[in-house]
Amino acid sequence: MIRPILRMGDPRLLRVSEPVREFGTAALRELIADMFDTMRAANGAGLAAPQIGVPLRVVIFGSADPSARNPRYPDADPVPQTVLVNPVLRPLGEEMEEGWEGCLSVPGLRGVVPRYRRLHYTGFDAQGNPIDRIVEGFHARVVQHEVDHLDGILYPMRVRDFTRFGFTDVLFPALQDVPEE
Ligand code: NI
After folding, report:
1. Which domains, ranges and CATH numbers included, belong to the chain?
2. Is 18 tagged catalytic?
3. Which position among 101, 146, 180, 181 bears the catalytic label?
């Protein structure tokens, strides 16, 4: 079921979400199905449960189509379709990288955000199977963006240079329908 996406200004986006305690439940399956329906309907690149008003540590991101490339990052390897529950992130090294981000909760805007370039992340899939990955670049960026939502952080809070923050159609008039997270 497609659910309404909360927009910046809604206090529910600022909460710290709770860990999932039980895996393989109908409620968790339904939440994840709703998140995928909602993300696809909005042409999104990722979505966190708090964005549909559910304060649980669940994020989804990536594409089921291995040839799909993000138009903002045409050189990046496609990110595999992932359900990540109770994620834990550990940056590998201090190196930060700047990149453009958008967010389904901040529609129509883009900003440059510094993120750790390399990342080790762990967590669980919907059935409770462990996930353990080392990633970099766009994949690392998407995970950091989504997991921030679980701690009540929206990407504009991480923008440092507001000369590179603005409306997508003004910043990038040539780009149409670029996915947001
Ligand atoms: Ni977002």
Report:
1. 11-175 (3.90.45.10)
2. no
3. 146
Burial class for 123, CB neighbours closer than 10 Å (0-12, 13-18, 19+):
buried
Which residues are near ligand 1, the ion (C-beta closer than 5 Å)?
103, 181
Segment 18-57, tens digit of pLDDT = 999 999 999 999 999 999 999 999 999 999 999 999 999 9
| Distance in Å, CA 154 to ligand 1 centroid | 7
Work out the pLDDT band at 68, boundaries 50, 70, 90: low
Query: Which residue carries 């780009």 as its tokens?
Result: 175
Burial class (CB in 10 A: 0-12, 13-18, 19+), 176: exposed
Spatial distance between the Cα atoms of 53 and 124, rounded to a whole number of angstroms: 21
Cα angle 134, 136, 142 (rounded to 5 degrees) comes to: 100
How far is the CA of 178 from the CAs of 70, 148, 166, in angstroms?
Answer: 8, 21, 14
> How close is the Cα of 132 to the center of ligand 1, in Å?
22
